[in-house]
Amino acid sequence: DPQHDAPETLTAQAVIAQTTAALTAEFELRHGRPAGGVWSAPGRVNLIGEHTDYNEGFVLPFAIDRRAYVALAARSDGLARVSSTFSDDIVECALTELSPEVLAGWSAYPLGVAWALLAAAAEGENPRTPDALPGFSLHIHSEVPIGAGLSSSAAIECATAVALNEFWQLGEAPARLARIGQIAENQAVGAPTGIMDQSASMLGHADAAVFLDCRSMQTATIPLGLAANDFEILVIDTKVSHDHATGGYADRRASCELAAATMGVYSLRELTPADLPRMREALDEVTFRRARHIVTENERVQETARLLRTEGPQAIGALLDASHVSMRDDFEISVAELNLAVEVSQRSGAIGARMTGGGFGGSALALIPRALRESLEADILKAFRAEGFARPDLFIVQPSEGATMTGAHASPGEGASE
Length: 418
Ligand code: GAF
Fold this sequence. Notes:
Bound molecules: 2-deoxy-2-fluoro-alpha-D-galactopyranose
Radius of gyration: 21 Å
Oligomer: single chain
Shape: globular
């Protein structure tokens, strides 16, 4: 398989192998026992389709080459015991005591997933209750920058979900594990987010985006053709941090629900550009603009997927640009730093550019010819300096594989002690 000999694939695999080894050593230090296995799941960049997921619309994200890793080993005392490289704390809870109410802080991500998986396991044809499943020790390390709009939380949730799914032999399919991650995020973390981020993290593929219909939950893999066109995707992390558990995100979601209720539809997915005149009559000015973003964005996502299939990435620039304008002016989730990143990228030769993710901070993406990378980066840094903005982080992302086991040592159940 020539794919497997591509230098980029080898590099990505080497990185994963190295991180897996480091994590295994750290697991032993923190938990005093060998890890049974290591799993990982990527962050994501959304190419296009923002705030459409919870409106049952379309999204087109891809998994990136920055991952969260979890190492896990069995325990025989019925406890979930979690540690991470972003805290000195080790948090413990009996499996039978896990519930959204007792979870807080960083540990709500992995323990929220454990709780949501246990709840799923207790239902169905072969119900298994928490007292019938072994406890575990788990250690997390993540390369996905936090607060950058690259779904660091979904990466942790999905890495934990694949690990526990395998450890407890629950046999849940990837799309179902994405939903488990979302339930953890909604109920244990308290962020009213949609299904996009966890779907991208679970279902991503190298050099492809994940087209997802958030109503039918049907997915399609859309080749991005970046390397073949000498294109790259540059991420501009503005360092303006956001938090979807508070403020603007929930407010936008409420506007969408109001618009759907006023229009007499179950979700804004059911409306098309032909409905816009009717919407303008029925909705107040702000709610109309919020809903118009969703309606037009759904069109842009489908058109982007179509153009990627028929013409390739050089054809999608105008759609990326239009998506940004819609988020800036209609949905109003952009900030000055994101607008600047997008404008400078466009001026300096990007095919297209837009903010990505939930908004109010985080990152923008620019689809660029590889040869322009250096000059474009210099232009962006210069413009940010001139505006007195914090120095953004600039990096290339590679569309990558979704959640997976990345290192096995023994079966995670083996060598259980305690
Ligand atoms: C965040 C949410 F988690 C996603 O579900 C999605 O709504 C996105 O914002 C906006 O498109 O990443």
